[in-house]
Design a protein that fits this description.
Blueprint lengths: L1 E3 L11 E13 L3 E7 L4 E7 L4 H7 L7 E10 L7 E12 L16 H6 L1 H4 L3 H23 L3 E3 L4 E2 L11 E3 L5 E4 L4 H11 L1 E9 L12 E10 L3 H22 L1 H6 L4 H5 L7 E3 H10 L12 H8 L6 E7 L16 E9 L4 E9 L3 H10 L8 H5 L8 E7 H9 L20
Parallel strand pairs: 1-2, 4-6, 7-11, 13-14
Antiparallel strand pairs: 2-3, 2-5, 3-4, 5-6, 8-10, 9-10, 11-12, 12-17, 14-15, 15-16, 16-17
The structure holds one RNA strand of 75 nucleotides.
RNA sequence: UCCCCGAUAGCUCAACGGUAGAGCAUUCGGCUGUUAACCGAAGGGUUGCUAGUUCGAAUCUAGCUCGGGGAGCCA
């Protein structure tokens, strides 16, 4: 007997096959039962008549949701079945029956967020959540494929760091050996710079941690970031790379995960449109745009969620905002030689209010300037000795950015909340399950 | 840390000062083409906690706890 996955069912029309999965739902009608099976690749309706398969009928009768089953039967095209195919159940083996006393908690109806998050380990079995996690995997695959194709080498930055990368955000402190303090990384960037000066073009990809007390649908305490860094690269190179990377991710998902996007009822035409070039506006132009829209932002203000959404509403692609005031940006960012009050930095804002998905910049490569900035920001010079070394031995202009995986995937999927696009979301006040 | 909102059956919600209710889930019964199936019946509650106002509080007030959304900060 051939064992197939549900997504392959259409190719086995008229054949007797076996499916290994779980009971997703059951509709009974006296002497006829319609069980819906899932196996992680999709769902398929089964039919079982008392007259034709009495043994299977008795086994299925009253079977509880999410009981694990191995089903054998003939696949046939059937217009009345969701998905166009159904399986005529001739034999069923119950691997484990969910007890009636403790029914599966996730029902086929609306649930509250708190309840779903408490049952995340079971919530992920629903077709929608499975589709999202498959899209996440494809986003990672296409991102890496694109970076590799551009000559970037995947390297890894450490999770434990001796000090803040940017000095602003709150860090998770870890007790290290005796008097030593260590922190969970909030960015691999500083290490990426060292690697770029060693290998030329590199990227890191891994989890990163922010102890900010952010409670919004755009924030996670633990999230994944892809951070390219390239020696001899300047701001425009990174804006081009970011544009290419985001396009490659979106097009990869559109091409290879269209079924999942349909499952999420995502408007695919909006995603098909995501190709270079992306609109680019300077920070100062963005201030003008905001002013015309009635927003009071003035030069020197940083943009919050409202401002980002307002600007992105003017475009149907991600928008790049570049050259922010030096005063509101991180200490390591290279000032514009023509306008020292502006930093050679850029952000990429996703459409539809999903916020900032990329933040990047050209880095200071001059030793004296970097030292001055460290002092201005009251950062512990001892912790940054190795970082200063990079400006002492063959320093070159270099640049990079960080792409937030979950925000990107949340935008592609059109989910209301970022917590749906990571298997086990970690947020402030939530570490279970 | 600050601002706003919420907490009632396993779940989603209603009742808004006068005996705590519905749908789903569970149990039992019915149904041969169902589509979160449907129809009938049953069980299921210290209304988040503590105090107060009142003849009477799920409902009004205060504090606390937990959660949600947002600000700040960021990807």
């Amino acid at each position: 007997m051939t064992t197939i996955t549900i997504e392959q069912a259409g190719k086995f029309d008229g054949q007797e096959v076996t499916i290994k999965g779980w009971l997703y739902n059951l509709r009974e009608s006296g002497k006829l039962i319609f069980p819906i099976f899932r196996d992680g690749t999709g769902i398929i309706q089964g039919v079982c008549a008392l007259k034709e398969s009495p043994e299977a009928f008795e086994a299925l009768k009253g079977l509880t949701q999410e009981s694990s089953v191995i089903v054998t039967g003939k696949i046939r095209a059937e217009q009345r079945a969701p998905g166009g195919f159904e399986i005529g159940v001739s034999k069923i083996q119950i691997v484990q029956k969910v007890p009636e006393s403790t029914p599966f908690p996730i029902q086929l109806k609306e649930h509250g967020v708190d309840f779903l998050l408490d049952h995340r380990h079971l919530w992920m079995r629903t077709p929608r959540q499975a589709a999202i996690l498959r899209i996440r995997a494809e986003a990672i695959r296409s991102a890496r494929e694109y970076m590799d194709s551009q000559g970037y080498t995947l390297t890894d930055a450490p999770m434990f760091t001796p000090a803040a990368c940017e000095g602003t955000s709150t860090l998770f402190e870890v007790n290290y050996i005796d008097d030593e303090k260590a922190y969970l990384t909030q960015s691999g960037q500083l290490y990426a710079e060292a690697l770029a000066l060693a290998l030329g073009k590199i990227y890191t990809f891994g989890p990163t941690f922010r102890a900010e007390k952010s409670k919004t649908r755009r924030h996670l305490t633990e999230f994944w970031m892809l951070e390219p860094e390239a020696a001899y690269a300047e701001l425009p190179d990174m804006m081009n790379l970011g544009e290419g990377l985001v396009s490659a991710i979106v097009q990869g998902v559109v091409k290879n995960k269209s079924r999942e996007l349909e499952q999420l009822k995502r408007d695919i035409t909006k995603l098909e449109n995501i190709k270079p070039p992306f609109p680019r506006i300077s920070y100062e132009d963005a201030i003008d745009v905001l002013g015309k829209a009635g927003n009071p932002a003035k030069f020197g203000d940083d943009f919050g969620g409202d401002e980002e959404t307002l600007i992105s509403k003017n475009f149907d692609k991600p928008v790049i905002i570049h050259r922010y005031p030096t005063a509101i940006k991180a200490f390591y960012m290279q000032p514009d030689p023509d306008r020292p009050d502006l930093a050679l930095a850029f952000d990429m804002i996703a459409p539809e209010g999903y916020g900032e998905i990329i933040g990047g910049s050209q880095r200071i490569h001059d030793y004296d300037l970097l030292l001055k900035r460290l002092k201005e920001h009251n950062l512990p010079q001892e912790s940054f000795q190795w970082y200063l070394d990079l400006r002492r031995y063959g320093s070159v202009p270099h640049a990079g950015f960080g792409l937030g995986l979950e925000r990107t995937v949340a935008w592609i999927c059109g989910t209301e909340h970022i917590r749906e696009v990571i298997p086990f979301p970690r947020m402030i006040y939530r570490v279970y399950p």
